[in-house]
């Protein structure tokens, strides 16, 4: 079961840094938080757009039903905003803050690449297999240079040893 207070806090922190997040942005940032061993109650598997958690998706829909969150549907994305913060308890975690600060300004596409690269690394335990794994999952969507940049960002942020 997802930690609803933490999810609301993550959405608020992303919003402070880069405006209202879309569903893809939230999915990927929560994956990056979970990968830092902060349990937000969201199990992940691989999906068309990279790592995806049905637990997180359910929590967002549940929080919408409770009047805590609102999803604005547009032709390009689904923006998630907090509309009633007082309905959930406060949540604070330094690692969560660090991850959000490091990744909130990335585009949803870039987060998809970064999270997919990390997912491949977690599964393979081999940095040298990331590029081939990303290409297997994403085809030609991302050139080698972008995959290399994503791996470097993961190294810089302590997910992968140099």
Q: How would you describe what is shown here?
A:
Helix content is 55%, strand content 10%. The model has no long low-confidence stretch (mean pLDDT 97). The protein has helices at 4-18, 23-35, 54-65, 94-103, 108-124, 130-138, 144-156, and strands spanning 45-47, 50-52, 69-73, 78-82. The strands form 2 sheets. The chain has a two-stranded antiparallel sheet with strand order 1-2. The chain is built from 7 helices and 4 strands, in the order H-H-E-E-H-E-E-H-H-H-H. It is mainly α and 162 residues long. Strand 1 (45-47) and strand 2 (50-52) form a beta hairpin. The chain is globular and about 45 Å long. The N and C termini lie far apart (34 Å). It has one domain (4-156).
Which secondary structure elements does this structure contain, and how are they paired or packed?
Elements: H1 4-18, H2 23-35, E1 45-47, E2 50-52, H3 54-65, E3 69-73, E4 78-82, H4 94-103, H5 108-124, H6 130-138, H7 144-156
Antiparallel strand pairs: 1-2, 3-4
